[in-house]
Write a structure and sequence with these properties.
Length: about 260
């Protein structure tokens, strides 16, 4: 299992690098089997990367029908809500490439019961993936170490009807999470789904993320972002996100 950290001077350079990683993974998957599965993150950090990726896909004339898009997590709001991860991704990426509706797997959040919503999403996503794992997963890291709505203080409501504490071994494909940190309900893919991916890319910017990033890279079991490792995992971070401990991160850190 390969883990790298690459440091960039600012958020603009980080976005450009994330776009390059995504384009490479998508093109590789298209060569291998003719389709590509990407799991998108929400939040402000990946927004510019998605915008750049839309231009790359259009410029390279990649057929949007060959690309499948999932969302690693979602807030319990409708897809047209300003806080929706899906809305952001549609505005800066999916609508720009004219992604067919069948290729965008929506959580359908904010309707009915959260656990039932997670069960429906699991069924739709598994159908769209057709037995394949994700080629690329984008993730962020919160200042508390959470990722993909896997909150340290959360309770996962499973599609089976049972509940467990949020942890690295949440069973199933998707779950609804209730957390005081999140101030309500979230929806998330389970760690096993994210860990099965060919490449996981964490995008981390801002000095307030430095302690959480350090714990995630060190494998701290109390930090949800430390639970996620794909076949290849890459932390793309701005210099300020490394904080004062940057010098101790080791030779795998490359300054781009």
């Amino acid at each position: 299992m390969e883990v790298d950290t690459i440091v960039y001077p600012d958020a603009e350079a980080l976005a450009e690098a994330a776009c390059t990683f995504a384009a490479q993974e998508i093109e590789g998957a298209l060569r291998d089997r003719g389709s590509a599965i990407t799991i998108l993150a929400g939040g402000s950090t990946p927004r510019e990367a998605y915008s750049l990726l839309s231009r790359e896909i259009l410029a390279k004339k990649i057929p949007p029908s060959a690309l499948v898009w999932l969302f690693g997590d979602e807030r319990w709001v409708p897809e047209n809500d300003p806080q929706s991860n899906e809305r952001m991704a549609r505005e800066v990426l999916l609508d720009r490439i004219h992604a067919p509706a069948s290729t965008v797997i929506s959580w359908g959040a904010g309707q009915g019961e959260p656990a039932d919503c997670a069960a429906r999403y699991a069924a739709k996503a598994q159908g769209a993936m057709q037995g394949h794992v994700a080629d690329l997963v984008f993730l962020g890291i919160g200042a508390d170490g959470h990722t993909a709505s896997l909150f340290p203080d959360g309770t996962a409501h499973l599609t089976s009807g049972s509940c467990v504490e949020v942890g690295p071994n949440i069973p199933g494909f998707a779950a609804a999470v209730h957390s005081g940190t999140a101030k309500g309900w979230r929806l998330t893919l389970c760690p096993s789904v994210l860990n099965a991916a060919r490449t996981v890319v964490f995008l981390v910017a801002g000095e307030e993320k430095a302690p959480a990033l350090r714990r995630a890279r060190a494998g701290d079991p109390t930090t949800p972002a430390a639970w996620i490792r794909g076949r290849r995992t890459v932390f793309l971070a701005t210099r300020d996100a490394l904080g004062p401990e940057a010098a101790n991160f080791g030779r795998e850190v490359r300054h781009a």
